[in-house]
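Action item from last meeting closed. Structure (533 res):
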């Protein structure tokens, strides 16, 4: 008789086998890819950081020190590494400065996370501990911060200078920093004192001269010539300015079709009608007392013809044509006038008034300046000059960063020291806090504290100093209670960095730490990549 063997009941533990190897490999690959992106921009951190030369696929060459620009132009394919590019964009829109810092901090945090994961700590535990540490870090930074008033112009200039000192155009920081402060303060609206819209500060680039020739213009600047056809005026005092969005040219048929005229008398009639049509429009314009026309660029047909320019010149009306559609809002806000969409709506109350509109020769080209605007809106224009296109573009990017720094101070009126001082102080205080915490949390917070030391370490390394000796000395100074001790890269030693006028807005540092932590937590939580074709 055959023995019937009862089925063996396996224990539930051995029944299911979960392969965690793949998840670990994906996580490891993501962290390594993101770290390599962070290492690419690390050398450009700080006032002694290196610049990058970027050659695009269209043979365009860019020389820059700005983290957001470098990462934006890099063609990153790995999805996790792309997150670091997005991270620098987030920092750029939140604070405007600290785009390199945020990526370097994220890279250092990822390196520490790799170590914690290799010790068998679960990613969720690491992620939660990092969030706690980041919140605590923001509290520590806020406690360190020094309040600042908008009336204290010197402090604002110092923070803008600190931002510019790490740029290619750092030698012009004494000119650009006060210019950025004045530009932002002139557009602050008393009704909304915490809000600054940088679209109210227009940057016009003009090749020629040097960055020294950059100026703040209280009015409008157009990077184009006055229309010279038929000898029209190029200078107009007591200007009455109209911004028009219609065309001063003969109408066309709505559909594409050609009209064949075989008779000369008919041809003359067409030309006569054209003349009387244009003349009628110009008489209506002249009747309002308007003597300066800003004409929007037209897609459908020519905004002006030679004939209309001839009549406008006879009527002594100065014409600036081909004004871009997206500039109209800024122009009307500045001139405190209304855009006119139809000749029938052309009225005196829609005009803007200015003391002077004139064409000025600048370098090898010409620009048009409108100054002395009556009841001018809360806007300003910065005319940036540069000897070549590379310098011009970098000056614009640097000026944008300086404007953003001043905007941060308007939004959150606190300053903290620069030069690696806040990071070392955070590292020290979080390290002490980690000892109080229990279990895995304490390990993770300590790792977060160590990661923050990457900023002073990199600053020292990029300045050609001995990073280990500098960071050790810095730790020692902070342990003795010198919370504003930082790396003075010019002297190559540690000094009180507030006295050296190296300051930055609190918002730049707090948003850098929060955004970097958020990005790292997201990367940690990813355990698989699914590609959909």
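Sequence:
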């Amino acid at each position: 008789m055959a023995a019937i063997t009862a089925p063996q009941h396996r224990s539930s533990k051995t029944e299911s086998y979960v392969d965690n190897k793949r998840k670990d490999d994906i996580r490891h690959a993501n962290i390594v890819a993101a770290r390599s992106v962070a290492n690419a921009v690390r050398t450009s951190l700080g006032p002694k950081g290196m610049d990058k030369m970027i050659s695009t696929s269209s043979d365009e060459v860019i020389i820059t020190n700005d983290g957001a620009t470098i990462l934006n132009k890099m063609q990153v394919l790995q999805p996790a590494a792309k997150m670091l590019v997005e991270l620098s964009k987030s920092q750029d829109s939140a604070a405007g400065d600290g785009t390199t810092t945020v990526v370097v901090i994220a890279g250092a945090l990822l390196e520490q996370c790799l170590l914690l994961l290799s010790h068998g700590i679960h990613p969720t535990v690491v992620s939660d501990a990092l969030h706690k540490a980041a919140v605590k870090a923001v509290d520590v930074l806020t406690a360190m911060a020094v309040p600042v008033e908008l009336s204290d112009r010197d402090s604002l200039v110092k923070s803008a200078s600190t931002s510019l000192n790490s740029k290619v155009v750092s030698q012009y920081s004494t000119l650009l920093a006060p210019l950025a402060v004045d530009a932002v303060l002139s557009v602050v609206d008393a009704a909304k004192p915490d809000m600054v819209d940088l679209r109210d500060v227009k940057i016009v680039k003009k090749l020629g001269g040097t960055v020294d020739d950059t100026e703040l213009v209280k009015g409008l600047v157009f990077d184009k010539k006055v229309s010279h056809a038929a000898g029209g005026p190029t200078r107009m005092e007591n200007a009455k300015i109209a911004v028009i969005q219609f065309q001063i040219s003969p109408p066309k048929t709505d559909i594409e079709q050609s009209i064949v005229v075989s008779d000369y008398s008919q041809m003359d009639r067409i030309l006569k009608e054209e003349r009387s049509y244009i003349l009628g429009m110009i008489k209506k314009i002249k009747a309002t007392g308007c003597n300066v026309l800003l004409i929007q660029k037209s897609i459908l047909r020519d905004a002006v013809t030679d004939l209309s320019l001839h009549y406008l010149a006879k009527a002594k009306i100065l014409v600036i044509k081909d004004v871009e559609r997206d500039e109209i809002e800024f122009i009307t806000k500045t001139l405190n006038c209304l855009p006119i969409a139809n000749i029938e709506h052309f009225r005196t109350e829609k005009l803007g008034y200015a003391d002077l509109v004139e064409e000025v020769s600048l370098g090898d080209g010409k620009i048009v300046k409108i100054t002395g605007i009556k009841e001018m809106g809360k806007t300003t224009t910065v005319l940036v000059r540069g000897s070549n296109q590379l310098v011009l573009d970098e000056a614009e990017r640097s000026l944008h960063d300086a404007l953003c720094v001043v905007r941060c101070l308007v939004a959150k009126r606190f300053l903290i020291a620069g030069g690696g001082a806040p990071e070392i102080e955070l590292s020290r205080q979080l390290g002490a806090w980690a000892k109080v915490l229990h279990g895995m949390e304490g390990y993770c917070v300590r790792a977060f504290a160590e990661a923050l030391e990457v900023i002073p370490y990199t600053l020292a390394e990029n300045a050609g100093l001995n990073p280990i000796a500098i960071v050790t000395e810095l730790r020692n100074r902070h342990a003795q209670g010198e919370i504003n001790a930082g790396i003075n890269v010019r002297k190559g030693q540690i000094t009180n960095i507030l006295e050296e006028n190296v300051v930055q807005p609190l918002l730049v540092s707090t948003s850098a730490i929060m955004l970097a932590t958020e990005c790292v937590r997201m990367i940690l939580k990813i355990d698989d990549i699914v590609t959909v074709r």
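Note appended to the action item: DSSP finds 17 helices and 17 strands in the chain.
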